Every structure is written in structure tokens, then in C-alpha cells.
What we know:
It is built from 4 helices and 4 strands; from the N terminus they run E-H-E-H-H-H-E-E. The two termini are 19 Å apart.
Amino acid sequence: MDKIILKGIQFYGYHGVSEAERELGQKYAVDVEINYDLGPAGTSDNLDDTINYSAIFRLVIKIGTNEKFILIESLAQKIADAILSQFPIEAVLVRVKKLTPPIPGELKYAGVEIVRKNN
């Protein structure tokens, strides 16, 4: 199956278990993968035959910067639900990475990955 991939959508958000994380904020990165038949768009060269990834990018930024979540699992779920409800797709993979988690020691990121499907 063909895929539309958005990798490394970055924003500054106010999510976290601790009050300090929700007040001070930190950087996040989100990856989105959508299985979608790209054959019609590849043949027609018409945006109407595909999913506009700019619109998905804007949606992820809007949710990540305008809403607050305690858990990154909830952030990932909200992004997946919004994409599934606004675009004609069957399934989406959402990966959320907290780039500077408040954990002592060296860690590149902490993250979650979910796959959600329309019924």
C-alpha cells in the first residue's frame, strides 16, 4: 500500500505529567503515516486525487500548540482522531516524541506510537 509520510513535525507544546512541564513547555516532534492509494494522484497530477499533507501538518501544529495534555498518549490519540475524522482515510499511524523529557540521564526522546483505524 502507498503511504503519505510526514516526519518530524516540530512544535513547542505544554504537555506533561508535572505542572512545570505544562507551564514551561518543551519541544515535541510528531510523525504521521497514512496508507492511501496514490495511484490516481500519480496519474492525474491533481491535488484533489490525494490527501493534502499541508492540511495535516497544520492540524498537528494546531492540536500540539493550542491544547494541553497530561499524557503524550492522549496527544497522539487526539491527533489520530482528528485526522481520521477530517480526511477520507482508513488508518493512520501517529508517533509523538517528547524531545527533552524530564528524566535524569541521556535520552534522545521519549515517545509513543499508535495506529488507529476508522470503523
